Structures are given as structure tokens and as C-alpha cells.
Amino acid sequence: MPDYQSYAQGSPLEVKVISKRFGLPNSASIDVFLAHEGYQALVKALKMTPEEVINEVKNSGLRGRGGAGFNTGMKWSFVPRQSPKPKYVVCNADESEPATCKDRPLMEYDPHQLIEGIIIAGYAIGSHQGYIYIRGEYRYLMEILDRAIAEAYQRGYLGKNILGSGFDFDLATHTGAGAYECGEETALLNSLEGLRGYPRVKPPFPAVVGLYGCPTVVNNVETLSNVPAILLMGAEAYAKLGTPKNGGTRLFCLSGHINRPGVYELPMGFPLRRMIEEVGGGLRGGKKLKAVIPGGSSCPVLSADQIDVPMDFDSLAKIGSMLGSGGVVVIDEDTCMVKLAWRIMKFYAHESCGWCIPCREGTAWLQALLARFHSGGGLPQDPDTALDASYNMLGKTLCPLGDAAALPMISILKKFHHEFEEHLKLGKCPFEKNGTGAF
Amino acid sequence: MLSESLKAKFEEIIARYPLKRSAIVPLLMFGQDEIGYVSDELIEEVARAVGVPAIEVIEDVGYYSMLHRQPIGKYNLQVCTNVSCMLRGGEAIFAHCSKRLGIGHKQTTPDGLFSLEEVECIGACCGAPAMQVNYDYYENLTPAKVDQLIDQLREAHRNLGSGTGE
Amino acid sequence: MAETRSSVSLTIDGKTVHVPPGTLLIEAAKQAGIEVPSFCYYPGLSLQGACRMCLVSIEKMPKMQTACTTVVTNGMVVRTDTDEVKNARKAMLEFVLTNHPLDCPVCDKGGECELQDMVFRYGAAETRFLEPKLHEEERKFSSLVYYDRPRCILCYRCIRVCDEGMDVNAYGIGFRGVHSEIIPNRDGRLECEECGACIDICPVGALTSGTYRYKTRPWELTYTGTICNHCGDGCKTTLSVRNNQIIRANNRDHSGVNGEFLCVKGRFGWDFVHHDQRLASPLIRQNASQHPATWEQALEMTAERLQAILTERGPNAVAVIGSNRTTNEESYLLQRFARAVLGTNHIDHHRTADFSSLVRALTEAGAADRYATMEDIFRASSILLIGNDPTHQHPLVAYQIRQAVRQHSASLYVINSAAIKLALRQAKLFLKVPPRREVDVIRVLAGGGEAPDLAEGGSQAITALRDRLRQETDTVIIFGDEIRGGGVAELVRWGLSLPGRTRFVALGDYANSRGAADMGLLPATLPGYQPLADAAARSRYESAWGASIPAEPGKDLRSILSAIDAGSLKALLVFGSNPLKTFRLDQSVLSKLSFLMVAELFPTETAAMADVVLPAASFAEKSGTVTNTCGQVQALKKTMRRAGTRSDFEIICALARLMGANWRYRSAEDVLREIIAHVPGYAVPLPSLLVGRAVATQPRGLPPLLEDSNLVFSSRDSLFTSGTVSRYSWALNSVDEAKRPYGHIF
Ligand SMILES: Cc1cc2nc3c(=O)[nH]c(=O)nc-3n(C[C@H](O)[C@H](O)[C@H](O)COP(=O)(O)O)c2cc1C
Ligand code: SF4
Ligand code: FES
């Protein structure tokens, strides 16, 4: 198991709300957790009405950390109160978006914080059963969570009549087996039902028709890990940490050509330039910045001149990109953007579930086209064809994976068009001499 | 025949869900961990345990990239070459493994000890380049570290001895 | 159209449309005459949203939406004709063509391919895809089904028709992404009912038929809609013929009682028609062996020998056995020939269901309008199935039952001695009874009383069933040969006491069991279930035929056979029947005859004993009508010619003329006109039949009670057998499933 240092070199600029217990000796154990405010939020929540809990979360401005950034309290409020069916809380721990590795420390170092968040979510929507869907590769995290869940049962935080409140809640882990698409919430539900991870037609949304056809809330690990803090510090204080409508802090995963890669907890709206220069210590080897992927590989890339932007959902949307999953990839001047586009497309082609035509065929087509193009076999019409094919996927697929593949492609074709031209002109990759440019 | 402990594990997992078929993928994963791959027998056993026709289990096996229908090496080196790793030399790590072991993507050494796989993002982006050996993470890799690791694994295998049935 | 409260109104391309709430946008558009293209959408099957061909613009929605998954709402404003929509269609076609081989010239589907049509209509003919296409070898899923992955567009229709239509679940999806493929359930092979619905529903040439593939081009074929000759359900099928060869069968226009349904026999089992053991020339016995002869020789010899026996022994020494596969016209003529020309009532056929008792019971109860049609089974809210195994013996009935359950949540109740598939998979309640005790259950259901050993679960289970049925209305009661004679009367009496309009179906084997009974191939019953004992009925037919009918009832089939054994019956004419096998007779019995004539397709056990063998035409080689087990009459259309053969119609007419009758039928249609005019209950509109409709009949009559319950028994054919003819079908014998024990469930 890697040590804490591999995630967090730490920065004085961090505002530690959900990562505050990271680094404590034995931080995953219930005793350490209890000694540091653990399960206090649950005690508090159980004294509130479910509606009050939902309102608190709504007012905190907490938005989904899985990528789409939907207001979490709002999502909870869509669950029909009166439904006679059982309701479910599903924690999305599929963390598969390239460049994202923030849920991992949350589960590794503070599993009880997550469990507490899940129980509170269950209480808020009237659910008595939760599942944590963990990507298959994270087996060691599943073991940590299983241990933590057992501890929570032992101490009466899970099971029947929790803390004498009359509220019952059960929780179990579920392993995936290698499929990015299973992070998409409806595909995740199918997968959890033992089916192939194909997405479902929406509407109906999971809040109404979810797991086993019952109302279900699906939330990301980080989202749920924020819930105890919100209840403890209060919605207002939490919201104030961030920018308007973008409450709290967020775990950013800094990777790529950066001096100090790592997972850092920073306030919502933290400026990207400072994140790269001050938190991450600037580019490795003093290289020049070429581009940034701001929130995982699904997001349109930013060019070097676009980094004066506050890192929150709305600000990034304004400049045509997304905050996504918080995976910030710093890309230096020696990188071939054609190759980067190819590598991203290779991922989506590999992970396309294959259900719908445009994504299945489009990603495979673009992967093949880019491979040929990058290795010198490009034709003048290729960039236009690729752009057109990307637009033909965009907004037309069943689930957002098609968009996730099209958006970065479109941004690279537009912002780095000249690199395509150079490939054509040279008949080969102009970056070949550099390690990352080589094909 | 599946081991008694695996059967017990199956029962424990199936009990987690209101619908038995939810357990298919977890059962396949734990079954594969024990058997080494998804054998025909495992498919039949899982289908029987959750009460679905075998084809529904086979459909799942085809879908999930961690499930394999053929035996693979004792140590499966899964090298990430996705964006964050690629930018920090993931491809070179893969190439190095390939050269060291004399095998390519999804191949196994003749002695059955190592398999090699180029995989998509494994969630170790801040420790790039990274790989997993079976379920264990190895991060901030260099070719030298890879050599060391391979030697260690060989050594570990030798020390365990062969034919102990582990 | 006035807007009612139960309708939603919306605008599509400027047209206002009113549709019932819950209608899918794609269907609403269809109603407005606007075509929205689709591959994955298929009416009646579950929604996929996979092909994205049906994207349309809806006002106030930021993205285009799939018309196949969008339920209409009031005031919705939809456009299907914008550039955005048109470009999206083109884009989807371009995507799908990236890996689709352009092998249309050699593809079986060429000319009737939905992808081809779509490209023709919506564009994307020129592709910008320059990469090598993914290739996979074609795979053999079974002797009848082949799969070509590159051509597959993954619309998942095959999977759904197999799951939702057939309840067989033989297909799945393997791998993922661009490598996704359709996979069969058993190690790369199919284990299923081999119905071929997947081939039919495939919009492209990905699933092809083992019998049709690479044989022809669709435009070289002539198509004839006719009726399948195997079981009693009467599925309509289009035979595609080239050079006097049937190349394939499918219900091309989805008309008839079966819509798009066909079972393995209907779709593939016609190949017996071309079997090289088909009799091609009349045979005459000389000493120990049979020798080819001309038709004239054979017919004249038959007439002479019959005449001789008639003269010597009288009409009581002659008997006729008819068929439950020949047409109504042929059965009608055959009994006329027996009664009016030979002067004997010794005529019968292998009865596979007790239709007579059903007609009698319903007539007695004044409920002769209570015969259920195939459509009624599908529409039923409640179904009681007693005996039989429709999955094997009546595939269409089973399909109708399954669809009733799936599409309108009909309640199915099953009484059976075996755990048949419908009982296990669709039934709300299944009463398992010891073999041959079904009728006793009816008695308990009707009269109460105790019967602890009668069903699993004892009297309580029976009471529970009774209670449930009393809460249903308009139940359709379907029964097999387990209920016959007096049992039918009891069942009908009790059934009619249930709430609503209870209706009935008796299940008989083969294409025209029902017609054989309707047409009076019975010793004591004239056509239309008129009792022979009824002098008025007799005289009506006498005046129609201009001949007298012996008043004394004839011998039934078992009595005919014992009379032959006893030596009192000397001549036997057999048409399309194999009594030696059906009744497990010893050869020595038939060798006691002075004269045996057999009209047949194949050298059967019975034909081998004959003095004269006449090669008969098969269903594909003649016209006429047949009546399915529900009493629905449909037209058989001549599709092709087979050298050397003559239809039973021609044979019977020729014999009649040779024996002195002055019959003037020029065609089977003339006989049909006579049937329409004279047979009670058969006043069916001829034009309807000729345009291919199924016309329901409601016979009314008081035929005599069943003399001997052993006269009624089903052959219990499986999905892959069909009496004698299936022995000569390569297709039916080629599938692995045919080798499994009867009743094996897929
Ligand atoms: C293709 C695809 C993959 C996704 N993968 C993940 C994932 O790995 N983890 C995650 O939390 N959300 C993922 N999401 C987002 C989920 O669909 C969903 O929005 C999220 O779980 C909701 O939780 P939140 O509101 O707490 O963010 C993915 C979405 C798409 C379209
Ligand atoms: S966009 Fe379509 S093919 Fe791609 S993952 Fe979603 S549903 Fe599957
Ligand atoms: S018909 Fe609507 S997506 Fe295929």
C-alpha cells in the first residue's frame, strides 16, 4: 500500500475540511475517528428531521464531486417521500476518470467519514440500505471499508436502531471489475444489479426509478464525505469556504508535468494559476506551460493563456470547459497534442460500452484516425473529418461518455490546430525527439 | 470444485442483496482471485448460485476488463499509460517491462509467473507513472524500480517454493 | 378530430396530432404520416435508445431527443425536418457504416435491408472513414442460424425477440465497445427453439438462415402467401420460390393469425416438399413388389378393384381413412365420395382433439358463439390451459399466451400432469395433476367435493384455482386431448358458469384436424357436425349431391381396423395418413385386405403395403382452405408444381368419375362454393379468404357423443417433429435440439 506521501506532499495553502484526518496515525480506525469529531454529525442529524438535513445540505452549496456538479441537497429532495418502495443510497466509488485519484485517499485514510456521510444521506431520504460501488482495482480500499463497516456495526452506527434513534441502516460494499462506464450513475445501477454496465434511458432519473426500480440517490465518495462537515460547521460556514453556488472545498489532483503532484484540498474557486505555480510548485524542469486539463480527461483542455480562472463549476463553464472530477493535468511545451488527443480517444474507445452507435463507432473511428495521423499518415482532410465526427457524437449519445470523448477532442482540434498542420507538413510527429511525443 | 471458503464467501456476498443476481460480478471477481481466471466451471457455479442462465454470466465476463477467461501469470503487471502516466513516462515503463519479461500486452511468460497488461487509468495519477501488480499499487516508477520489483517477485515466488499448492 | 380528455395533442412538423396518453413520439409521428427512422425501436419490444436514428428536435429541450423513448406530452412542439435532425441521421448512418462491410452484392439481405434503404433515403452514401474495417469470420450458431459480426449493427432486436417474444433467452452480448457482438447461449452455439425469429427481425444481413443463405437474390423470387402445413395453429407464411423450388418461408407482410410469428417448422420445415424420397410416380403391386405405373393405370386399377369388391361384398366391405393435413375441400369430397359414390359411412380419420364434443356441448348450451380465435387468446385477460404442451405442440398458441401475459398482464392458469414451460414461466397458478386426471379436476372445480390426491396441494389448491377463476372475467379455456367426450361437456358447462364470456379452444394436431372434423370425415357425422341419424340433414346433403347416403352409421377408425383384422372389411382407401404407424398396427392386419390404396407424399409404412400407391401433392402444390384449431378458415395457395404428383382433389375426382359419378368440379374453389352453400357454419365470405384473411367459424350441431375415448389422441409432436413429414425434413432433423428428449425446455 502506497504511503500517504504519494498523495499529499501538502501545501500551506490547503484548507483541510475533509482531509483533516489524513496523515493521523491509524486514521482509518474508528477510535481515531471518534477521537476527532467522528460520528458527531450523525448524532446531530438524527436529532434533526430529514427535511432539515436536506435543507442544510442544499444551502451549503455542496455540488456533486463526481463530475456533473449537481446540487446535492437538491438531488436528495427529488426522492419521493411517500414511495412505498424501499429506497437506496449508492456511493459511487468507481473513480475511473483519468487523472482523478481523490476518492482513494478519502477511503484509505478516512473511511468512517464516508460511512457517516452515507448514513446521514440514508436518514435524509428515508433509506435503509446503502451500497458502496468500488472499482475492481481498488480491492485494498474495499478491504479497508469492509473493516470500517464492521467496526461501525459493532459500535452501533450501522444496523438496527442507530444510536437509539429508531433509524435502521445497512451498508455493504460492492466490487466492480474494470469498466469506466460503470461510473456513470445509471450504468452503475445496472452493474450493481448484475447486468452489463449499460446506461439507462433518462428520464426516469435514479432519484425516482433507480436500483431495483426503487428511488435511489447516487453520490460520489467526495460528495458524501463532505456531508458530516457540513452538518458540524453549518451550511453557511461551509458555503462561505467557496464561491457563490460552489460551496466548500474540493480535492484537486494535480498531475502531469508539475513539480509537486498530489491531492490537495483547496477552496472552491481557487485560482488555477496559483494552483499550478504555488501549490504544485510550477512546471517540472522549468518548462513552459502548453495546456491544462482542468477536471479529468473528459473536459475540454485549456490553453496556457486560459489559466487565470477560479476553479469552480461556473467559472470553468464560462470559459467553455468543466471542473469535472478535479483532476488537473499540467501539460508542458514538449508534449504532442495530437498524441494526447489520441491517447484520450484510445481511452474512450476502450471504455465505450458499445450500446449506442455514435459513441461506439465514433470513438473507434477517431482513435484509428488519430493513430494514423500522428504516425505520419495524415491527410489534409483528417482534422476536419475528426472535428465533424466529434460534433456528430456530441449531444447525440445515450449517456455522456460520448460527450466526454468529443469535448476534449474538439478543444484540441481547435486550440492546437497548428500542431495538426505541422504533422501534415513534416509527414511525422514534430515532437518525436521528446519522450512523450514518441508514438 | 470451488473451495469451501469460497463457497462460504459466495453465500455471504449473495446475502447482501435483495436480488441474487447483483452478486454476479463480485462472485466472479472473488472466484477469479482463487482460481486464477474465470473458468467454465466458475461460470456455471455463479449462474447456479444466483439462479440465472449461464449466458447472463458470460455476458458480464465479456464486459468487464478485469475478468479473464484464460489463466494468466501469477503476477499480473498492469502498467497505466493513460494521460497522467503517459506524461511522466508510463509508456517507457511498459516498454521496459515488456523487454525485461519478453512478453507484450496481455501475454504471459512461459513459466506462468508474469503477465503484462497495458491498462487505463488506475487512480494513481499523482504517483505517476504507476502500475498494479495484481491488486497492489506501485507508484513513481522508474525502469530501475521496475527491475527491482520484478526481481523481488521472482525471489518471493522462489521462497514460497513450488508445489505448495498456494 | 375533437380533442377528448383521454388524448394528448402535440405538433409535429407543424401538423397537429392527437394520440392517447402514453404514446411514444415515434408512434405519434407515424400516425401523422411522418416517418422517423429507427433501427433499435421495434413495436412491442422493449425500448433501447441505442441506434440514435430517431433523434428529433423538441422545443425547449437543449439537445435532440430520441423519439423512440420520448412519451408525448400536451403541447409538445416537435420537428423532424430540420437540418440538425437530417444531419444527425446522416451522421448515425456514417458511423454505422464505418465498420459495416459494403458487401451488399453478396449479402442475403441485399434488396430488403433496412440499412440499405435508410442510406438510400437519408444519405451518407459517401463515407469519410479511411481506416481498415474490423473483420471477424462468420459464425455458425446452429445449422439454421449464421452470424456475421461485421454486418451486425447492434440493434439488439434478436436478443429482445428471443427474450420477450419467445421467452427462450438464447442470445446475449459479448465483449464491449466496438468489439461488442451477439453471442449464443451454449459455447458459441445456440440451444433454443430454432424458430429463426432472430433472422427475420434482423434489419441487416447479420443473422442469416442456414437454408436460404447465398442461394438467391430476393428479386429473383416469387412470393406466395399460404398456410403452414405442420401444426394446427394455421400460421400464415410466405413461400419464396424460384424455379419451382421453395427457398425460404417467412411471414413477409406480418398478416394472418400469427403476425410475425413462425416456429421452426413454419420457417424451415417446408423442405420435406423437396425431399428426394417424395413419391414421383404411381406404384402398382405386382406379386411382392411395387412397380411404377401411369396415373391412368393406377386409377383404373383402383376403380376396378373397388368396383369388384363392392359388387361382390357390398359397400360394407369398403372403408376410407382421411387425413388431418389435406384441405377442407379434399376432406369434404372424400366423405362425399365414400358416402355417395361408394355408399359407405366407414370413414374416419385420426382424431387428435375432440372437436365434435366441443361443438355439441356449446350447441346444447346455446353458446355456439363461444369459440375463441387466436386473436382472442392474445387479447384475453384470463386464460385457463388444461393439458397439452403448447410450447411444443402449438407454438403459436404458446406465443399468444405469452404475449397476453407480457403485454397486457393476462392471468394464466395451468392444469397439467407435467411441469410444462408455460406453467413454470408464465402461470399465476399451476395445478399439477397425475397423468390423465385432468378431467377429474374439472369435475371437482365444477361440483366441489374433496379430492385430496388429485393435485399437488390437494383440494385446497383446486379451491384456490376455482376462487381465482371466479374473480376473472372472459376467461379463454384451452384444452388438449386430455379432455374428451363427456369431459368436454362438463368443462363447457362449468366454464360457462364463470363470469363474463368464457370462450373455448380445443387443441388438435396438424394443419387440418379441425377441418377434417368440420367436413365430416367421421362415421356418424355429416359435414358441419350434422348427425347422420338426422334424416333431415341427410336429405339436405342427398339433394345437394343428387345421390343417396346410407343411413346406418359407419365404423370408426378403430372399428375399421378391427374389422379388417376380422376379415369383414376388404378394401381400404387411405389418404394422407399412416395408420400402421399411428395405431402401431402389425403389418399382418393390413395384409388381410383384398385391396389397399394409399395416396401419400412418401413411402410410408402403410404405403409400403399398398396395392396402389398414388403420389400426392403437398400443401405447397395445391390450393384450397384449411381450418386451424380455433376454427379459423384460411386459404392455401398453390406455390409450385411437382412433377408426377396430383392433388388429393384431383385423385378423388378422378376416382369418382371412374366409378360412375358425374362430378363437375373444375377446381377446389368450386368445392369451396359448395361447402359455403351447404355446410352449416361455413358460410364464409369467399373474397375475404381469397385476400388472405382468417375467417372464424362458429359451428353449431349435435353430433353423436364420442363412441370410444381411445379414438381421440394427440401424436404429441415436439417442436421438431410433425408426424411423417418431419422425418423427411433436413432442417428439422439437422438441429441439435431435435435430439433432445421430448419436453426439454430451452
Ligand atoms: C462516463 C461517466 C463516468 C463517470 N464516472 C464517475 C466516477 O467514476 N465516479 C463518480 O463519482 N462519478 C462518475 N460519473 C458521474 C456520475 O454519473 C454521477 O453524476 C455521480 O456519481 C453523481 O454523484 P455526485 O452528484 O455526488 O457527483 C461519471 C459519469 C459519466 C458520464
Ligand atoms: S455514449 Fe453510448 S456507447 Fe458510449 S458509453 Fe454511453 S451509451 Fe455506451
Ligand atoms: S430507434 Fe430510437 S434510438 Fe434507436
Question: What this model shows, in words?
Answer:
By secondary structure, chain A is of the alpha/beta class. Chain A contains 17 helices and eleven strands. In chain A, helix 5 packs across helix 6 and helix 13 (337-351) packs antiparallel against helix 14. With 166 residues, chain B is an alpha+beta fold. Chain B contains seven helices and five strands, in the order H-H-H-H-E-H-H-E-E-E-E-H. Chain B has helices at residues 4-14, 24-35, 40-50, 54-63, 83-87, 90-101, 143-160, and strands at residues 75-80, 107-108, 114-119, 131-133, 136-138. The model of chain B has no long low-confidence stretch (mean pLDDT 95). The interface between B and C is small, with 8 and 11 residues. Iron/sulfur cluster binds at residues 181, 199, 352-356, 359-360, 397-399, 401-402 of chain A.
Largest beta-sheet details of chain C = 7 strands, mixed
How are the strands of the biggest sheet of chain B laid out side by side?
2-3-1-4-5
Shape of chain B: elongated
Mean residue pLDDT of chain C: 95
Rg of chain B, rounded, reads 18 Å
* CATH topology grouping of the largest domain in chain C: Rossmann fold
> Ligands bound here?
flavin mononucleotide, iron/sulfur cluster, FE2/S2 (inorganic) cluster
Number of strands of chain B: 5
Classify the secondary structure makeup of chain C into a structural class.
alpha/beta
User: What would CATH call the homologous superfamily of the largest domain in chain B?
Assistant: Glutaredoxin
The low-confidence runs of chain B, each spanning 5 or more residues with pLDDT under 50, are: none
What is the second-level CATH architecture of the largest domain in chain C?
A: 3-Layer(aba) Sandwich
Shape of chain C: globular
Radius of gyration of chain C: 28 Å
**Fraction of residues in helix of chain B:** 40-55%
Oligomeric state as shown: heterotrimer
- Beta-strand content bin of chain C: 15-25%
Number of domain units of chain C: 4
